[in-house]
Amino acid sequence: QLRLVESGGGLVQAGGSLILSCAASGRTSNIYSMAWFRQAPGKEREFVASLTRSGDNANYADSVKGRFTISRDNGGITLYLQMNSLKLEDTAVYYCAARPAYSTKSYKAYVYWGQGTQVTVSS
User: Fold this and answer.
1) Residue 83 has what pLDDT?
2) Rounded to an integer, what distance in angstroms lies between the CA atom of residue 37 and that of residue 30?
């Protein structure tokens, strides 16, 4: 089994920065791509960014392009999300996800999920 654990969430003022981390353990050989999703209250879970294990193919939601950066290290099993210029609308629970195939923006395609970490942006 594969386990994902997110950390780094918190309260930040608009315009500030946060770094989220996602540590994978267990059957990490099952990972080919990893991604960040987020879900605000009353809204559907939405794609934020994804990255292949090799780190050579990153994709971003239009809403975060130029502000967020996804990266991986530790042999591709630790995922990060550097979030800059945070906006009120970035407030959500952020989830790390992984799958044993190419990355996709559809949350339904991901097999493994973390428990989520809350990010709250205040004015």
Assistant:
1) 98
2) 19
